[in-house]
């Protein structure tokens, strides 16, 4: 039977329509940023109410070159979050912090370079996904946060082979929330937690992640100005070239957003803070052409903000993975931390 699908109409609308709040460099930068921020916060959905963090340190361990704390805290009432804090042992009074976020994977242990499941070792080695290990080598503290719907925070209410976060994300929508908003909230509350530790320099906070971790990285930087540099990998693209026309998990979506802005327009909420876009030339779900279009818009926004030197792009020659060596080189050049 021939399918009669509305997909072509949706795609035509996406390709032809101009979002009403799309960045325009002929208009006042600050006025546009303010309107974009208001709409972004509205579309993120209802955010949780702040509750006491109720920080609990489950264990502390010493390793060769760094110390580790496993921390449980209340992200909101009735919702616990888990993270690990790694701090180098190099004798500094305070350390810059890198928030490390895994995407769709078996969990945050990937960021720590600790394989648990069958395919973990290959994913770590072949994709430079051990973000915390890299941060420690660079001399930074690492905050490894388990995202909602992944790893230890995945749902038991799942069936089939689809993403484990699907039902969690859909239920958030039923409640007037979004998974993006909830994950961004968790990053912000995790920063509240680590701000209580004297050896963390909260004036030097970075956030990084690949795929779904990169998505949260970008939107968290839009939301929380304490993030001074964002390094999203394999996640920045036009909506029309990626999440709207290629099969993606529902946790990527902010309802109604394409009416008002494309993903890259929100870079106005990050500027003049710094951003490094990491991308793979052969990434099948964040195509090169869409990444280039999005990054060109980011450059346009940063130029309008008078800080064009604060945005960079790193291209890897492979697919959907992180590219550690060139990315950290650019990171060092932008931060001098």
Explain what this protein looks like in three dimensions.
The protein has 337 residues and is an alpha/beta fold. The protein has one domain: Rossmann fold. The protein is 33% helix and 21% strand. The protein is built from ten helices and nine strands. It has helices spanning 7-16, 29-43, 120-127, 131-137, 166-174, 179-194, 212-223, 257-260, 288-304, 324-335; strands spanning 56-63, 66-76, 79-88, 95-101, 141-145, 200-210, 229-233, 274-280, 311-316. The chain has a nine-stranded mixed β-sheet with strand order 1-2-3-5-4-6-7-8-9, with helices on both faces. Helix 7 (212-223) links the parallel strand 6 and strand 7. Helix 6 (179-194) packs across helix 7 (212-223). The protein starts with 6 loop residues before the first helix and ends with a helix. The mean pLDDT is 93.
Mean pLDDT level = 93
Instruction: Report the CATH C-level class.
Output: Alpha Beta
Structural class: alpha/beta
Share of residues in strands: 15-25%
Distance between the termini: 61 Å
How many helical elements?
A: 10
Number of strands: 9
How many domains, as an integer? Answer: 1
The level of helicity is: 25-40%
User: What is the CATH topology descriptor?
Assistant: Rossmann fold
Low-confidence stretches: none
What's the CATH H-level superfamily name?
Answer: Alpha/Beta hydrolase fold, catalytic domain
């Amino acid at each position: 039977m021939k399918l009669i699908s509305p997909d072509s109409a949706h795609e035509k609308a996406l390709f032809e329509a101009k979002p009403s709040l799309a960045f325009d460099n002929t208009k006042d930068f600050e006025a546009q940023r303010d309107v974009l921020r208001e709409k972004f916060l509205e579309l993120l959905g209802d955010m949780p109410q702040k509750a006491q963090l109720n920080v609990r340190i489950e264990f502390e361990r010493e390793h060769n070159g760094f110390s580790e704390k496993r921390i449980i805290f209340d992200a909101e009432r009735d919702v616990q979050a888990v993270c690990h804090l790694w701090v180098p042992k190099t004798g500094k009074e305070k350390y810059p912090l890198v928030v490390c976020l895994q995407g769709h994977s078996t969990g945050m242990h990937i960021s720590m370079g600790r394989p648990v499941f069958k395919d973990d070792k290959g994913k770590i080695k072949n994709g430079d996904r051990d973000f915390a290990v890299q941060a420690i080598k660079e001399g930074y503290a690492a905050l490894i946060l388990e995202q909602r719907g992944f790893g230890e925070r995945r749902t038991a209410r799942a069936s089939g082979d689809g993403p484990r976060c699907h039902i969690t994300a859909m239920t958030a929508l039923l409640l007037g929330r979004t998974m993006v908003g909830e994950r961004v909230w968790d990053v912000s509350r995790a920063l509240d937690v680590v701000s209580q530790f004297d050896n963390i320099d909260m004036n030097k906070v970075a956030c990084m992640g690949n795929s779904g971790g990169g998505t949260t990285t970008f939107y968290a930087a839009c939301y929380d100005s304490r993030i001074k540099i964002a390094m999203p990998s394999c996640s920045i693209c036009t909506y029309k070239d990626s999440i709207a026309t290629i099969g993606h998990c529902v946790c990527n979506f902010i309802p109604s957003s394409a009416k008002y802005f494309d993903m890259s327009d929100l870079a106005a909420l990050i500027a003049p803070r710094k951003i490094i876009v990491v991308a793979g030339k052969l990434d099948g779900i964040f195509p090169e052409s869409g990444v280039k279009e999005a990054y060109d818009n980011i450059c346009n926004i940063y130029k309008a903000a008078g800080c064009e030197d604060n945005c960079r792009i790193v291209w890897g020659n492979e697919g959907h993975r992180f590219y550690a060596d060139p990315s950290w080189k650019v990171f060092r050049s932008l931060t001098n931390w």
